[in-house]
Amino acid sequence: MSTDNLHKLPDEMVLLLCEFGQTVFYSSDKLIHARGDVKPGLSVVISGLVKVGNYGLDGKYCLTRVLEPGETFGEFTLFGNLPRTHNAESLGDTEVLQLNASEFDLACQRIPQLKDTLLASLATKLHDCLEILDDVRRLPLTVRLAKTLVTIAKTRGTNDVVIRQSDLADVTGVTVLSCHKALNVLTEQGLIKLAYGRIIINDRSAFTRWIEQKSELTSL
């Protein structure tokens, strides 16, 4: 079952939404929303990237995900009246479409398929979270790292994954040293190549088959 396209809103829907909200420009490393914010609203990445993560009490930053154009955040504040769980910050020059609660309600009236599209996106995110939770409990780091790389490659539509090892370590929730060791194992097995600031998957189909064998589960 492929969910590759469900993380993002269709381009035509993003264009329609632009009529209801405000597109805000953020230079690099600017705060868009903070953990704990309760003001409801939907945000859509228009251009650039948004990094989502949290700062611990010791000041250490833990990256959770990098959102790309078409991806949304803030749904919990609208549908669940819940506070934001993470800080959202611009990664490079970024444009984000912001809709407050009343603007979102109006958009839903004018775009009947909007809520169903967001529901499918949220279901996909929950599906991914359950997979990650199972991975953390069952799989060795090498396999978890491989699954993360394949997911990023599918989302970006390329086997040349531009990501720093430190960011990959943050996303996976391990130290940079542990991440580096796991990547070396994948390199030695001929599954990936390491380059400056990026990781190249040699053959995504073969990589996926290797992951399925190591996961010891039937594929979805």
From TrEMBL:
<dbReference type="GO" id="GO:0003700">
    <property type="term" value="F:DNA-binding transcription factor activity"/>
</dbReference>
<dbReference type="Pfam" id="PF00027">
    <property type="entry name" value="cNMP_binding"/>
</dbReference>
<dbReference type="InterPro" id="IPR012318">
    <property type="entry name" value="HTH_CRP"/>
</dbReference>
<dbReference type="Pfam" id="PF13545">
    <property type="entry name" value="HTH_Crp_2"/>
</dbReference>
<keyword id="KW-0804">Transcription</keyword>
<dbReference type="GO" id="GO:0005829">
    <property type="term" value="C:cytosol"/>
</dbReference>
<feature type="domain" description="Cyclic nucleotide-binding">
    <location>
        <begin position="5"/>
        <end position="125"/>
    </location>
</feature>
<keyword id="KW-0805">Transcription regulation</keyword>
<dbReference type="InterPro" id="IPR018490">
    <property type="entry name" value="cNMP-bd_dom_sf"/>
</dbReference>
<dbReference type="InterPro" id="IPR000595">
    <property type="entry name" value="cNMP-bd_dom"/>
</dbReference>
<dbReference type="InterPro" id="IPR036388">
    <property type="entry name" value="WH-like_DNA-bd_sf"/>
</dbReference>
<protein>
    <submittedName>
        <fullName>Crp/Fnr family transcriptional regulator</fullName>
    </submittedName>
</protein>
<dbReference type="InterPro" id="IPR050397">
    <property type="entry name" value="Env_Response_Regulators"/>
</dbReference>
<dbReference type="GO" id="GO:0003677">
    <property type="term" value="F:DNA binding"/>
</dbReference>
<dbReference type="InterPro" id="IPR036390">
    <property type="entry name" value="WH_DNA-bd_sf"/>
</dbReference>
<keyword id="KW-0238">DNA-binding</keyword>
<dbReference type="InterPro" id="IPR014710">
    <property type="entry name" value="RmlC-like_jellyroll"/>
</dbReference>
